[in-house]
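The protein record minuted underneath.
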Amino acid sequence: MQDIYSEIIKNDLLKLEDFNGDAEEDKDTSILAQEYSSLKKAYPAFLKKIKQNTDSILSQVSNDVSNNLRILFSNNHLSLNVVGGESEGFSSADLLKSTNSSVHIDSNKQSKMPLANQGTGLQRMSLIYLIQNMIEKKLLGENDNKLLLIDEPEAFLHPEAVRALSRSLYQIGKKMPLMISTHSPILIDLSERHTSIQVFRVGEKEAIQLYKSVSEQFDDDDIANMKILNYVDSYVNEFFFADRVVIVEGDTEYIAFKHLAKERDTNIHIIRARGKATIVTLMKVLNQFNSSYDVLHDVDNHDKHSASTLKAQLTNCQKIYASKHSDNIRIFCSITHFENAIGIGDVSSDQKTKVIYQILDGQAEKENDYSEARTLVESIFEQIINRDKDLTSSGGFKKITTSEDYEKLFLGLIEQKSLEEAEKKKKDDALTI
């Protein structure tokens, strides 16, 4: 960072050296280029004048030393010459020797504090911001042939600073490619429109490509969903570091799976979608990187819903299945929802966390026996983490293999509800008459 000022001057001088003399192109640059050219031409003549006396003295020194050497070694052919360097001009490096710079930090308590004496986090963010702004202002020269390499830029930064770092890196990435080694999922912002992302696991002898993005496939709704996810769950991107990935719809199954993953010491990343539309967006994200993953969502074919609501839920479910683009993706559903699928029925939202804790902890209240519910939770979890086994669905869970599987869960109920609603309408019309 101490060399930043010199680097700027260096690039300015290189521009002057390469200037083609077109005054119409840039009048100020043309004037500076002429002055620079005159200076380079005048320098050798000036140097020759101040060297005349020194060269004369060096010539006499050379003769005296040569005479001493001939006598000492009895060799009349020996000679030594001290010759002053000649110059046809000078380079930008000659000027840069006098352009040393320093970087200071000022605060309300003290001014001109050397940045080198500040914390590592402040140093890193200062460097990143300097690079970003210098690139934007073209102070680092042309960027076509430049690549920025950064080793763990998130080190020593608190979470909000890492997010700021991510935003800055994306701005830099618009001007030049980046190669980063990182352990932070926060650095990747999936709501940004990427040209390309590749993720490698680097070993002693080789780098294994884990993920590579394919063509962008997000619409405006997907971008909005991902921005929301960035606010409520900034660790969605942890899938880059996990052995297995699962998308779940609600809080109950998220808590249950997180508990079982910790209990079994399993490297599984669980993404909480909080809605079917977001599930589709998340599937697109994972599809972009050709990921293998599982989805567990609620069917929501509850008999309390109207026929129109059931039709909408069927469409939402079918959109999830339509987003499955390979056999490495498995879809499971809870009928009608997760709580009902494990046999505890409808649970109010404010009680879900308490109930799932009791199920997993095994310390249910006397009037409630949740042993069967825990068995069902463990069963669906095992089916998801054991991808090499094709286990049979149990309880209220079903593995979806075709879009027709959803129709079997909805069409009969939709028909029944339509008939009930039509009958009710007839009665209401009759009463009105």
Notes: The radius of gyration is 36 Å. The mean pLDDT is 81. DSSP finds 13 helices and eleven strands in the chain. The longest helix spans residues 27-73.
